[in-house]
Structure prediction request, 292 residues.
Amino acid sequence: MTIIEAQREVAKILKEGGVENAMNEARFLLQDALGYDSVQLVTGYRDYACTSCVETAFDWAKRRAAGEPMQYILGHTDFMGLDIRVASGVLIPRPETEGLCELLVNEAKAHRGADPASRWPARILDLCTGSGCIAAWAASAFGDAQIVAADLSEEALAIAAENCRAHESHPGQVELLQGDLFGALKGDGPQFDAILSNPPYIPSRTVDGLDAEVKDFEPRLALDGGPEGMDLVSRIIKEAPDWLAPGGLLLMEIDDTQEELVRAACEECGRYASFAVLRDLAGKIRYLKARI
Ligand SMILES: C[S@@+](CC[C@H](N)C(=O)[O-])C[C@H]1O[C@@H](n2cnc3c(N)ncnc32)[C@H](O)[C@@H]1O
Prediction:
């Protein structure tokens, strides 16, 4: 069977399973099954595909047709231009979280613009690291920085370790710690210039109504933020100032239903010099930016 014939067969399986963009997804599945890049797939479309590779692509297509997310099937995804390993124990990194990283890039530019000698941020915490996508990106983007990545899930930390080791600027740049939010950290006292966090923030009732592709495959621990989605968000807002260096920044992803609750939590904490609730590229409330 030629590559283009295999692609059409894969697309047929996907279409029968109700997958939109079946031809496009077929391309991704076949590309990985063959071990090709996108150019090789296009230029070699008349070549014969290896039989075992085609069988793998068919097996993957059946899993995809049954609703499993493409990223879990392929075992990796793109995040901020980095190839990030994912598996069923971790949340699949989302484009909205890339927006959180962009906020840190803009802050770093502002610091370095004001003072060319500035190496801000020198120490970064990625709380609720999951796949380690934020920590791995921060390590590759800020070669001078020391990064700490923490999560409650040991399964997630094992994958985070792989991603951080693959992308850090020098060995040991990222320290991985297990525990309940800030309880994972060693020592005491303020130490981070920036804390980034994408905690579980979806209200429990909303999790139950999510698409099967999310609800049935992604870990509930990564999604469910309690009745209003605020269980961890509130704790992070309250406790982050204890861990931020003077002028330090908390950047956190939040739900679009939480603007007032998040503002109230920052007011109640009383330790932030300024804070703002920001929108994502789709225009939805998505981030808290708070400075002590
Ligand atoms: C929304 S996922 C974020 C994963 C990753 N940072 C990302 O942006 O794709 C939330 C993560 O928080 C972790 N988590 C849940 N409860 C926690 C807790 N009490 N303390 C630390 N981490 C927790 C979950 O294991 C999960 O990996």
Observations:
- The first helix runs from residue 3 to 16.
